[in-house]
Write a structure and sequence with these properties.
By secondary structure, this protein is an all-alpha fold. The protein has helices at residues 7-42, 50-58, 72-107, 119-133, 139-162, 170-194, 203-206, 215-234, 236-242, 246-251, 256-278, 284-296, 300-324, 333-356. The protein is built from 14 helices and no strands. Helix 1 (7-42) packs antiparallel against helix 3 and helix 2 (50-58) crosses helix 3 (72-107).
Length: 357
């Protein structure tokens, strides 16, 4: 006599296996982050042994002793030069990674990314206007201009991409973002080229560099990024519903307009804050969100949590790679992520095209 296994009995082991896989993904990401942090502090024009890095960091702990046997120049390289740089990558990477996950969920667009949708280009233009016309020279003063530029660009892309009969489609939003980003980048370049000496302070920032980042911009932006990540986690469950379609979200009692406004605030805080610190970083949100979703599935809370870890991992490894490929100089991290992210964008676009056939 044939027997039938109840559906709940089958689903329970699958759910447990899925949870184990997600937890394992978080653990692996945390280990990778620890490795990336140590490499970021050790690798550079003056290499510092990992053991010395650990001893220097141990001296910062409450009750920690001065690092005996470590050269003063190595201590200075770790604490004065690389620690604020690493902190900048931590803040900006987490911000851009989570922003990418939120943008892809709320637009239901796997090609979405703060850079591709023109959000970071809006921030860059606003910062250029601040420097060129408002006389703002301190990086901490760029923050508010960066937020305003990110918000205006996000709203513009949403309005342009959502207009018309086919408005809101992934392809239309992407094309709108690329077009707006190109226009804003062109205006930014025109402003900078009109008076290159005035923009000396932002020249490295424009290509997405972590070099010479002090504690000031990091300390200013970090609270906004933390608030943005907390807000992203709070709306992650409603985002789950919105990512399945507006009709589905409405049927389960989710206010789609409210979730979209919340997502806009989140992306503005995260992408605007990250851009203010390290400049425009291309494709990081796209790569991180796809990697996180490949590990934890379509669950937004898990995707956002894993993206907050993988974003700094990718940005730190890109920064370290940029230091070792062109000695004695270095490549900006933004150039490295662009070189890696462009093929990823092509692969994702080809998958979308194949899926549409």
């Amino acid at each position: 006599m044939a027997t039938t296994t109840p559906p709940g009995v089958v689903r329970a082991p699958r759910a447990a296996a899925r949870t184990r896989r997600r937890v394992a993904g978080l653990v692996v990401a945390a280990v990778l982050l620890a490795v990336a942090l140590l490499l970021s502090l050790a690798v550079g024009a003056r290499p510092v042994a990992l053991g010395d890095v650990v001893r220097v960091l141990g001296g910062l702990l409450p009750g920690g002793a001065a690092p005996a046997g470590v050269a003063p120049a190595d201590v200075a390289a770790v604490l004065d030069l690389r620690l604020p740089r690493t902190a900048a990558a931590l803040v900006a990477g987490a911000g851009l990674g989570v922003a990418g996950a939120v943008v892809q969920a709320v637009t239901r667009n796997p090609l979405a990314d703060p850079g591709i949708l023109g959000v970071t280009a809006g921030s860059a233009l606003a910062v250029s206007i601040a420097v060129g016309f408002a006389g703002v020279t301190a990086a901490s003063g760029w923050l508010w201009f960066s937020f305003v530029g990110a918000a205006l660009a996000a709203v513009t892309v949403s309005l342009v991409g959502g207009a018309g009969r086919s408005g809101g489609s992934p392809a239309r939003l992407t094309l709108s973002g690329i077009a707006l980003g190109a226009v804003l980048s062109g205006i930014t370049s025109s402003i900078v080229l009109a008076d290159p000496r005035r923009f000396d302070a932002v020249r490295a920032w424009e290509v997405g560099s972590l070099a010479d980042r002090g504690w000031g911009p990091v300390a200013t932006v970090a609270p906004f990024v933390v608030v943005g990540i907390v807000l992203a986690l709070l709306v992650s469950r409603p985002l789950d519903a919105v990512s399945l379609g507006d009709d589905h979200a409405s049927s389960v009692g989710v206010s789609v307009p409210l979730v979209r406004v919340a997502a806009l605030v989140v992306v503005t805080l995260l992408a605007g804050g990250a851009t203010a610190v390290v400049g425009p970083i291309a494709f990081l949100g796209l790569m991180v969100a796809h990697s996180a979703r490949g590990v934890v599935g379509a669950s937004q809370p898990w995707t956002i949590g894993l993206s907050a870890l993988l974003g700094p991992v990718l940005l730190l490894f890109a920064d370290v790679l940029g230091r070792v490929v062109a000695p004695p100089g270095e490549l900006a991290a933004g150039l490295v992520t662009a070189a890696i992210g462009a093929p990823v964008l092509i692969v994702v676009a080809r998958r979308m095209t194949g899926g549409a056939r």
